[in-house]
């Protein structure tokens, strides 16, 4: 699916503008929307899946204006909201079957085949008879993905799926998404966790205070910070001075000193040397500098 977003703005009735003039083009595969809490990611996604309306701007999905074709668009979209909750009285397979009844026209026999196929795909077949509300946090998220997939969407929108998951579950979740992105489906994933993006997405945007601070590839974002990441060993006094002037990204105590990595446009200390940048450095750089839309 090709999604063209032009001049998208969302102002809530209380006057707060959560998304400001966002322009993005999103193609097939996995697209990452990175940003801190409050950046506007959920607001953006709710508009995208037609749960709420934009104040201004247009979204075209494969050429269809989503405001003019809401019903058609809803059939193309699977959505896993951040606050996804389950009915307490249903077993895992029953929950998914219920979702299938809502979003497909399949007969019972075909539905059940599909339910088990999806449970297998997200690694929940073993727990199909467990009550859905008794699943672990990671399992619930995976069941959330299964319900979003049941209508065979062309676009899958997933809001902060890895928040609160332990590292093993987070990796498992990322792997499921990577597998899905090999199929003919566009996936938009929002997160404030840099590792979610670097391990799954070739295309991304960073939102900050409702505005696009960067769009391009993770590698392109890293390139922007190259030459601005520094490493230096400092004593307590030097460290205390430098940390008031620059964004410190890591400190490791080494032999009574501090091995410090920090972000600075110019060399922050005579002994500082350039360090290899990564996406976390770039994230801090864009957050601190509020650079506006990048040049890529
Ligand atoms: P994120 O998903 O990146 O954390 P949100 O889209 O949830 O960001 O929120 C962006 C901003 O919009 C925040 O300042 C939030 O308080 C505000 N906001 C979100 N929803 C509403 C609402 N329904 N009414 C008023 N303000 C809202």
UniProtKB/TrEMBL annotation:
Record bears the keyword Nucleotide-binding: yes
Domain ABC transporter stretches: 3-234
Keyword annotations from UniProtKB, A to Z: ATP-binding, Nucleotide-binding, Transport
CDD domains: ABC_drug_resistance_like
Domain of life, per lineage: Bacteria
Gene3D superfamilies in the record: P-loop containing nucleotide triphosphate hydrolases
GO MF annotation: an example: ATP hydrolysis activity
Pfam families: ABC_tran (PF00005)
SUPFAM superfamilies: P-loop containing nucleoside triphosphate hydrolases
Family classification: Belongs to the ABC transporter superfamily.
Protein's name in the database: ABC transporter ATP-binding protein
Organism: Marivirga aurantiaca
């Amino acid at each position: 699916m090709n999604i063209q977003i032009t001049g998208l703005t969302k102002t809530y009735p209380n006057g707060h503008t959560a998304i400001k003039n966002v322009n993005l083009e999103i193609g097939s595969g996995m697209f990452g929307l990175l940003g801190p809490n409050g950046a506007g990611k959920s607001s953006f996604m709710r508009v995208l899946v037609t749960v709420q309306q934009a104040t201004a701007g247009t979204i075209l999905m494969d050429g269809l204006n989503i405001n003019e074709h809401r019903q058609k668009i809803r059939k193309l979209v699977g959505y896993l909201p951040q606050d996804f909750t389950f009915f307490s009285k249903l077993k895992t397979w029953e929950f998914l079957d219920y979702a299938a009844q809502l979003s497909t026209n399949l007969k019972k026999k075909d539905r059940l085949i599909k339910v088990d196929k999806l449970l297998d795909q997200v690694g929940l077949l073993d727990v199909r008879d467990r009550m859905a509300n008794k699943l672990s946090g990671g399992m619930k998220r995976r069941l959330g993905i299964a319900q979003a997939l049941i209508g065979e969407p062309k676009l899958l929108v997933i809001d902060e799926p890895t928040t609160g998951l332990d590292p093993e579950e987070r990796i498992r979740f990322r792997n499921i998404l990577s597998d899905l992105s090999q199929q003919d489906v566009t996936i938009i994933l929002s997160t404030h966790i840099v590792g979610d993006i670097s391990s799954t997405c070739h295309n991304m945007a960073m939102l900050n205070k409702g505005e696009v601070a960067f769009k391009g590839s993770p590698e392109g974002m890293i390139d922007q910070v190259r030459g601005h990441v520094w490493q230096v060993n400092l004593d307590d006094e030097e460290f205390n001075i430098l940390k008031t002037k620059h964004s410190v990204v890591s400190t490791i105590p080494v032999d009574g000193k501090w091995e410090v990595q920090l972000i600075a446009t110019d060399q922050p200390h005579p002994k500082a040397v350039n360090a290899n940048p990564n996406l976390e450095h770039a994230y801090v750089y864009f957050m601190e500098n509020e650079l506006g839309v990048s040049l890529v």
